[in-house]
Amino acid sequence: MNKRTNILHITDFHLNNFGNDSSEYLREDYYENYLRQLCVLISKKIGVIDAIVITGDFVDKGKTENFPHVIEIIKKLTLILNIDDSNVGVCPGNHDFKILEEEGGKIVKESMDDYKSFEMHYSKGGDLVYCTNDRFYITKLRKDVYFLSLNSCLNRKDNKPSKLTNKESNEIIASLKNISDNPETLLIIGSHYPLSYFDSAPYPDIDGWYDHHIWRSGLILKERIKVSLRQCKILWLCGDTHLPGESIYNNQLFIMSGRLGEKTRFISREQIINQFEDQGHISLDDISETVDKITEEMNQEHRQARVISYDVNGQPEVYTVEHSSRTYTDHSQYGYWRMHYPDRFSHPTKVAELIPKATMDLIEDLDVNGELEDLIIDEIKNNNLYQFNRYYLGDGKVSLGWISINVLLSSNNNLLQLIIISISEWIKSKLEDVEYQDSILIGIDIWGAVIASNISLLLDLPNYSKAANDNTDSYIDQELFTHANRTYNYFDKKNIIYITGIISSGSSLSTLHNLLYELYDKKDKTIEKEIGISILNDNNQIKNNLDFLTSFGTCCTKVKIPIIDEDVLPSEDIIGEDI
Amino acid sequence: MNQKLEKYFLICDEFIYCRLQLLNWVCQGANQSNKLHLATVNELKKVYDSYQTDKPILLDCRRVRDIGNNALNDFLKNTDFSRKIIFWNVNHLDKYIISPLLEYKIEYEHKQNSIIISTIEKGLPKQIEKKTQQLEQKFVEGKLVGCFEPYDEFKRLYSTHVLANGEFDATNLISAQDSFAWISIKLSDLVENYLASIRARDLSPDGKKYSDEKIMAVSFRSSPFAVAVANVLNKNVIIIDHLGPKHNEYDIEILDFLNKGTNIIYVGDFLIGGTEVFISQMYSKMFESDLHFAVVIGSAQSNKQGELCFAEKFEFNSLVNLKELILPKVEKVEYKLFDE
To answer: What are phi and psi of A480, to 5 degrees?
Structure first.
């Protein structure tokens, strides 16, 4: 990207009554004024908008006859912002389907036809559509900006988000291969229902709120997309809840925005208490404070538009533009838009710090010259240790390079000792500001265990050796939680230092982190500092959610080890197993 | 004050005892363990000044061959030696110690391969060899008892064909610094004794002359011990990353670095059925080398000969006979095959 990329996110128009007798914000005689004020503020404070994403509930309660008005409203927006309809991405909400049959307040049959016609006005009706069916489609909104529209309401039952099948999930993942996975690319995913729990969600659950508003089966996509697209930036946008929320997970940023339309609603404290009492699961005495909190929260307007602005380095800022009224009962025309100071997020592309050669006098006796990294490179070159071929990593990924850490560290005793002493000194420097003895070393796999056991003596710290095998999670589980009862007690140290030979995707380390996190939680303990150390690390490869590491050091970053999708390689049938 | 070295000293009524090589390893790193540097001396001074103050310190200097940059001088010069210190098995080290003693006019006695420094009384403890061996053996056995996990009923041991009433977990032996260091040093003794014995006969058990000697390990939890033994004895190590929970098929290439005609010495954690030794023997054969000798921390076999159904026989030695240990809950460990 040569400049900032600005994405406007709006959601939940809930157009019910477009007529002038309505008090809806998007009513015929007010929407232009309302949207112009918003757009002027955005243009003035942020600049040009590159794409708009609208995440459903365009109309209210299946009133699909309102879609022409919605088109009119969006047209106004695109005109003011000088955006083409093909730069607009939409996904359907649960209110956007025409209700054909209803029984006891539950929808039995509904039609998508009107929505389908409506969505063709925007990017889906353009030329750059890659795949499409009722569940999803992928379009290109602009150069390097793709849009995956998810229909989280398809075939829903009992007014709950629908079930995403494995087949559908596979199709979505397969279709994402159309997107070039590189740091320049931004993939926006629109889903009406949020698939994550945000802090703003009500607690305790009222009337099955979570079941009705969180797309649980969509959560699988979050994990699968994380594995499929490691390089590009991913922006999830959703609506439905009328609440704001933000979170970041590896290279995926999640934004949930408040509604744009609908009239002001006020829910009284009594109405909320009645809801609790109707459910009968909480005593009124216990919830007084909670009711106050929920009343206040539910009466927050959260009438919002958000602008997600990516800088040239791909780091996002989220601007929240919020419409405020003086009182709950104020007529909308007395309200005004204001922009909050932007929230800044950092996509964690964890880069390892290079561990320098130790400065101890003993190094002279080791008969080694040069910096640690150069010595490792020399050893790899001299022993011809770099092999270029296809090495399957699991998760559909292939590493094109392989270096035998085993041979590297076995072949030269002095190099191993230099690594041990250098890592020891580096760890000491990283533990300067904490209670040093409240730390444990974890050696992962054979050479991690060898190095950790030696550093354990030098630094006078306990260590735990651990085999990491991604394919046998149950074994890891067993080993950590039951098999090693006697070492269980070690795991109350505040600082954890992971030592491993090589980090390719980082999944072993993050799996171990998750297990330890769970273990500490069970023991009501907390981990304060986690330090990761590897002998080799290619900083160009995005690591698998290693943002939990407070420090990440490596002895050598110069060796490039490309990791690519298995699918992009030619078949072994054609060129054989060895490349 | 936290004293780094205290945990490594073994204590009896007459003295506190440690291997100088072990202390060097802890303070300086494994392949600097045969040379005494200032880093060790500084830590040793803390032990001398305050730890178990009424007992003499006995340091076995076996395999320590050098003292770097007059590292002992300041310690000798600034200590009053009201507490006795004994450097035992000094071998080639005597000249490095005696020279500053003479320079600083410090009283000492040099006898039976020992240097005794004290202003009060000289003399070596009686039966020093036997007592130190007993201390070491008791320490290792205690650590093995401590890492035993009794089962409620007989269960299959992971990746073996054997059922057992409990399991020795080597993770615990690696985790605690004192057990890891002492056990590695003791395994090194066994390997060194074996090498000395074949050198005395000037040939290997099968009469071949070997071009090289290498330490081999094939399991995850054996590897830290094998690498430690290799570093302490200044040998090369071969780790076959192919057994145990982590299978890494690409690393068999490590065997490309095995010269033909290498005498392979297996170092392992526990020898129950002997599968790992036999597999190591098979790999060695594939690369025209031989494995005749294995050392392990604990063995369920008592006859020191592998006589199970595979390949060639091998000789082995272990620090502890597992069947002789008195264990919690089960009292004695028992092993049996599935059909027994």
So the answer is: -75, -35
Residue-wise pLDDT tens digits, B39-63: 999 999 999 998 888 899 999 999 9
Distance, in Å, from the CA atom of B266 to the CA atom of B289, rounded to the nearest integer, reads 13
Q: How does residue A331 score in pLDDT terms, banded at 50, 70 and 90?
A: low
Q: CB–CB of B185/B21 below 8 Å?
A: yes
A237-271 per-position pLDDT tens digit: 999 988 888 877 667 889 999 999 988 777 777 77
Q: Tens of pLDDT along A464-494?
A: 888 775 444 444 445 555 444 555 566 788 9
Interface test with A, best of B227, B234, B252, B258 (most A CBs within 10 A): B227
Gap between the Cα atoms of A28 and A66, Å rounded: 12
pTM above 0.80, yes or no: no
Q: What is the largest CA-CA distance in chain B?
A: 72
Task: Name which CATH class applies to A353-575.
Answer: alpha beta
Residues 282-311 of A with CB under 8 A from B: none
Instruction: Choose from B149, B167, B177 for mutation: most chain A CBs within 10 A.
Output: B177
Question: For chain A, what's the residue count?
Answer: 579
Cβ contact (<8 Å) for A454 and B30?
A: yes
Predicted pLDDT at A489: 65
Pairing of strands B314-321, B290-299: parallel
**Beta-carbon pairs below 8 A across chains A and B:** 137
**Could you tell me the end-to-end alpha-carbon distance of chain B, in angstroms, rounded to an integer?**
55
Per-domain residue ranges of chain A? 5-262+303-344, 353-575
User: Domain A5-262+303-344 is of which CATH architecture?
Assistant: 4-Layer Sandwich (3.60)
Q: How far apart are CA B250 and CA B270, in angstroms?
A: 26
Nearest to A485 among B149, B241, B257 (CB): B149
With an 8 Å Cβ cutoff, is A336 touching chain B? no
A453 closest CA partner among B240, B142, B176: B176
Tokens at residue A152, please? Answer: 């989280």
Quick check: bond before B205 cis, omega within 30? Answer: no
